[in-house]
Automatic annotation (TrEMBL):
Cellular localization per UniProt: Secreted
Protein name: C1q domain-containing protein
Predominant location: secreted
Gene3D superfamilies: 2.60.120.1000, 2.60.120.40
A molecular function (GO) term: extracellular matrix structural constituent
Lineage of source species: Eukaryota, Metazoa, Ecdysozoa, Arthropoda, Crustacea
One cellular component (GO) term of this entry: collagen trimer
Coiled coil: 34-104
Occurrences of domain C1q (ranges): 388-535
Swiss-Prot/TrEMBL keywords: Coiled coil, Collagen, Secreted, Signal
SUPFAM superfamilies, per database record: Fibrinogen C-terminal domain-like, TNF-like
Signal sequence extent: 1-24
Amino acid sequence: MARLTAVFFCLMLILSCGTIFSSALTTFSLEDKLHELEVRLEAKIEAKNAQLEEKVAQLEAQLELNNELRQELALKVIQLEAKNVQLEVKIQDQERILTSLLEAAELPVSTDSKLFPVKKEISIRSTGKSGIPRTCRELRAADPSLSSGMHWIDPDGQGVGDNPIYVYCDMTSGSTSLLHDSESSLNVGHCAEAGCYSRPINYNSSIGQIKALMELSTECHQSIKYDCNFSPFKLNGVAYSWWNDREGNAQHFWSGSNTDGVHTCQCGIDGNCVDSAVKCNCDTISPIQLVDDGVITDKNVLPVTRLNFGRTQLETSSGVHTLGRLVCTGSVTLTGLPSSCADLQMIGHTLNGFYSVVGSAKMESVYCDFTKLPDDAGFQKWIGYADVKSAPVHFYVQRNSSFYPQNTPIPFELVVMNEGNAMNLTSGKFTAPRPGTYYFSFAGVARLSSSSSSVSLSSYLYLNGKLIGSSNVDETNTPVVQYSVLTLQSTLNLKKDDQVWVTISYPSGTSSFLSDSIYHYTHFTGFMLEEEIGASL
Ligand SMILES: *[C@@H]1O[C@H](CO)[C@@H](O)[C@H](O)[C@H]1NC(C)=O
Ligand SMILES: *[C@@H]1O[C@H](CO)[C@@H](O)[C@H](O)[C@H]1NC(C)=O
Ligand SMILES: *[C@@H]1O[C@H](CO)[C@@H](O)[C@H](O)[C@H]1NC(C)=O
């Protein structure tokens, strides 16, 4: 057993000794390794630390950025909320306007609307063009898809004059109807005196706008019907009923266009009144139900501003009037070129200023004040002639040698200028290319021979072969040759193709002539002062 133990011990010893031995061998390199590892680990940790620090810094930066963005977003949200509130207010405003417009469209309309079909719908739409049209016709032209109904127009032009007006537009005919407060059939009741019933007619428009609309339209009319029973307009020379025109003047015609004060109705014009002795059915003296139905077409006096009736005092008498709207159609077109501010306004000018217009003979300048009506003082101010020439005409020609023939147009040899080629040097004749006012000047030197008697030289200005002016130099008993200057000036109104030239002559038996040389003593010049522009437009 002891042996065994010893062996075992020894075995252990050997084993352990061996281990110890080998440990002793490697102890030194392990320490080194450990150290090396430590160093490496430290380096690694440091690197990792640095990385982490960097990352932290990045994250911090990111965080800061995020914060800023969040604040910005919050601000934006607040702004948007404010905008939203504003928009809501706007929408409410628009809704209010829409409602009031729709309410306005529900207007009292005449039951008798044969003149135009009434559609109670309203369309609020832009014309697609900027600016408000002047008539329904213009509105229809701007947007043919619009339906008939109430629309805004501005007859006297946008931005000037009176406010736009709200009218009924018939988009089929393009007509404009002005509504008023008395369109339904109204009973005049019973009263005796002339005009004892008097009703003002109120149009929802200024008289300026009404006039402007009528001026733009080729035709305007207003229907008027009077259902009567023993209630004459006129009886025994007394006018019991009349209407007032736009100037407030009394009118006695109930149809057509008749401004000379004559009392008549449609049957009077047609010659088919119930009683052929009177001009209106209602003027018939008998208690029967009659009617006068007419259409007033006089653009110069429309619209009807007041209706006056009388002599309906009897129980059996009755009178009911029905006044239609003022309806205007068509558009006055300007034929030719504008010759006044009214023409300019008609073609759409609305800005005050200086304009050129065609005058009777010349172009003229006018100042137009479109804030005024055409018949107002100061609407057009005449400034003067505008110097417009459709083509320039001027010449200056000379001679280079003496000229002897008498009564022959003097030809010219040198041309300094001949703008418009109106001067023919060969023939010596000027031919007016256009009608207008022209100026001419001729100058030359007369050579008079020595003579014991009288010697002279004349120059003559001819227009179409007719002598219109002359100049003359003469000498008596001249011992030596004399030189004298001849001149001629003239301002002439010429028609197209009129011809002007100069000739010379001297008494027979003498031998004077027009002296010239390389010094060019002979001059003929001329030019157009003003053109009669009408002929070339
Ligand atoms: C009258 O005209 C005004 C503006 O000019 C408009 O606001 C109103 O709606 C019109 N009323 C009628 C009954 O046409
Ligand atoms: C004018 O006449 C002279 C003499 O005949 C000639 O020599 C000269 O060239 C002429 N001048 C002109 C501009 O024609
Ligand atoms: C100028 O007059 C001459 C002589 O009359 C004529 O032969 C010639 O055709 C005229 N020239 C022009 C451009 O008319």
